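I'll show an entry:

:::
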Amino acid sequence: MQKRSKNDVLLTELIIVILVFSLVAVTVVQMFVAAHRTSARSGQLESALIVAQDWAERLSGAQNPDVLLLDAGFEPADGAYVLARDEGGLTVAVGMQPENRSGAGRLLSATVSVFDSAGREAGDDPLVSLPALCYIPSEEVGP
């Protein structure tokens, strides 16, 4: 009788140990899934930032930003330019503000926004939004 009691206790301990390890395994798997999602989101944000910086720099150095954007494949839409092709699952939009003119030249300002391709259509906020300024000196100004 005592041997059967020891076997029952051993079986109960094994079941409890297996249950604990199962719960720990489920928790660890959930943590790995969350870490993977965070890593993927971080990679997407980094790519969006690189694309936004690239376009902001291009606009800052351009003599005619409108021509630059049209030549690059952007399409005019509602006071902005939207890149027709995706760049790695991202959509680039450039919103141009009215230019400021003075005797010394023109100051053009724009906002470069990068969206997740699905997010732009759904009206979500951009992943990254950067300002871009372009100063074009007037050729009439002399020393």
About this structure: Residues 66 and 118 are 26 Å apart (CA to CA). Residues 2-137 form one domain.
